[in-house]
Amino acid sequence: MKIAIAGTGYVGLSLATLLSEKNEVVALDVIPEKVEMINKRISPIKDEYIEKYFKEKKLNLKATLDYKEAFKDAKYVIISTPTNYDVETNYFDTSLVEDIIEKVISMNIKTTMIIKSTVPIGYTKKIKEKYHIDNIVFSPEFLREGNALYDNLYPSRIIIGDTTPEAQKFGELLKENSLKKDVEVKYMGSTEAEAVKLFANTYLALRVAYFNELDTYAEINGLNTKDIIDGVCLDPRIGSQYNNPSFGYGGYCLPKDTKQLKANCKNVPENIINAIVDANETRKEHIANMVVSRGPKIVGVYRLIMKSGSDNFRASAIQGVMAKIAEKGVDVKIYEPTLKADVFEGYPVEHDLETFKNACDVIITNRYDDELQDVEDKVYTRDIFRNN
Q1: Which long-range contacts (CB under 8 A, 24 or more apart) does 221-229 make?
Q2: pLDDT value at position 89?
Q3: Which among 107, 137, 215, 312 is placed 20 to 30 Å from 168, CA to CA?
Q4: How far apart are the first and last CA of the chain?
Q5: pLDDT tens digits for 183-195?
Q6: Helices 123-131 and 95-107, axial angle in degrees (round to 10)
Q7: What's the rounded Cα separation, in Å, for the pair 196 and 140?
Q8: Residue 388 within any structural domain of the chain
Q9: Furthest-apart CA atoms within the chain: distance in Å
Q10: Both 280 and 245 in a single domain?
C-alpha cells in the first residue's frame, strides 16, 4: 500500500524508514535540503538505525515538497509535524497539524489520517467536530532521540486511539513491521490515548526530577550520591532505569509535554504535575549557583546536546543553566561542534576544543566525555554513572 508521512523529524523519518521496507512511502517536508538528503539516502538526523537502514536496506521511500504528490492514493496519511508549546496560550501550537488536515480534506481523497504529533488531551475529538470528519486517528509515539527507528522496531507498546477497522489495520501494520515478538497493541478512545502520551512523559520527567533532587540533597550535604541511588534502586519496585542525575530534564518532548499536562490539569485538584515543572527550574538554579560558587570568570559549556548519540539540543537543560549563570554576571563560552556560527543566542562559540579548554575556568557538561579527561579538575557535571 502507499503511505504518506508529513514531517521528517525523528518521528516521521523513523516511521518512513520502518514502513518503506514493505510499502510505498512518500515523505513530505517543507525543507528542500532535507528532501534532497532523504532521496540520496543521507539521514538528516543522527540516528544509528536510520543511517544503517539507509545504507543497507532496499527502501521504497521517496521524499517530496509537493503535498498532492505525497497524499494522492495514500491509504494512510501520517501526520508527524512539530507541535511546539506556546507559553502565551499554555497550549501546543497545532497549526501545522491542522494545515496537513486541511490539505487532505481539500484533495477529497479516501484516506485515514493518523496523528503522531503530540497534542493536548481532547484535541482529536475537537478536530473531528471542527472539520466534521471521522477519518482521523491519534496514535502516540514513544521514541528516544537518536534511537527512534530502534524504538519503532522494538516498541514497548503500540497505542491506537480508535477502535474502527482502519485504526485496527494501522495497529497491525505497525506490529507487523516491528521485530519484537508479542508487542502489545492497545486500542482505546482518542482522548485516553492522548492522556497516555502526556502522563507517560510526565512520569519520566518526575523520575528525572526525583533523582536530581536526591542528588541536590547529597551534594549540599557532602554525601555520596551514587551509593544512595544504588541502595534506593536495588528495590525492584523502583529499579535502576532513569536514575542518573543531570542538569534537568530537557529535549523536545519532556519540557513541553509536562507544561501541556499542567495546563490540561488547570481545573483538576493536583499537586504533583505542577511540582514536576517547578522542580526542573529549581534544579537548574541550583546547578548555576554551584558553578558560580567556584568563582569563575569564564564558564565553558561543553556541548549543548542532551546526551551522547544525538545531534539535537532543542530545549536542552544546559541552555537553561548557562542562561542563569550569565544572569549572575559570569561570562559564558560554548563548545559545540555541530554549530558553524561564531555566536549562539548571544554567547560566543569556540570551535577549537583546546582553545576552549584553556580559556575556561570551569567547564560544565550535562554528560561527561573522555575528551575532557585532561581538564577533569575544571569540569562540573552531575553525570554520576557516566551514561545517558
Answers
A1: 225/382, 225/384, 226/384, 226/385, 229/384
A2: 85
A3: 107
A4: 38
A5: 999 999 999 999 9
A6: 40
A7: 8
A8: no
A9: 66
A10: yes
362: left (phi over 0), alpha (psi -120 to 50) or beta: beta
Q: What is the pLDDT of residues 80-137, one digit of tens each?
A: 999 988 888 888 999 999 999 999 999 999 999 999 999 999 999 999 999 999 999 9
Residues making up the chain, counted from first to last: 388
Residue 226 three-state SS: helix
Q: Residue 313: is its pLDDT beyond 90?
A: no
> What is the total count of domains within the chain?
2
Active site residues: 253
Give SS3 for 61: strand
Coil, strand or helix at 53: helix
Binning pLDDT at 50, 70 and 90, where does residue 167 land? very high
H/E segment holding residue 180: none
Helix (H) or strand (E) holding 199: helix 190-220
For the cut 80, the answer to whether the pLDDT of residue 240 exceeds it is yes
Q: How far apart are CA 382 and CA 170, in angstroms?
A: 42
Cβ distance 39 to 63 under 8 Å?
yes
Four-CA torsion 78, 23, 69, 44, nearest 10 degrees: 70
Kindly calculate the radius of gyration of the chain based on its CA atoms and give it in whole angstroms: 22
Cell numbers describing residue 226: 551514587
Q: Which of 121, 86, 87, 119 is nearest to 100 (CA)?
A: 119
Paired residues of 332 in beta bridges = 299
pLDDT of 23-48, one tens digit each?
A: 999 999 999 999 999 999 999 999 99
Q: What is the CATH number of the domain that holds 352?
A: 3.40.50.720
- The answer to pTM > 0.85 is yes
Tell me the C-alpha distance between 177 and 302, whole Å.
39
Residues 61 and 202 in one domain: no
Q: How far apart are CA 284 and CA 118, in angstroms?
A: 25
Going by C-beta distance under 8 Å and a sequence separation of 6 or more, which residues neighbour residue 37?
Answer: 43, 44
Question: How far is it, in rounded angstroms, from Cα 181 to Cα 193?
Answer: 23
H helices of 307-352, where?
A: 317-327
Determine the Cα–Cα distance for residues 62 and 22; give it in Å rounded to an integer.
14
Q: Are residues 181 and 249 in the same domain?
A: no
Per-residue pLDDT averaged across 57-67, rounded? 98
Which structural domain, as residue segments, surrounds residue 229?
197-380
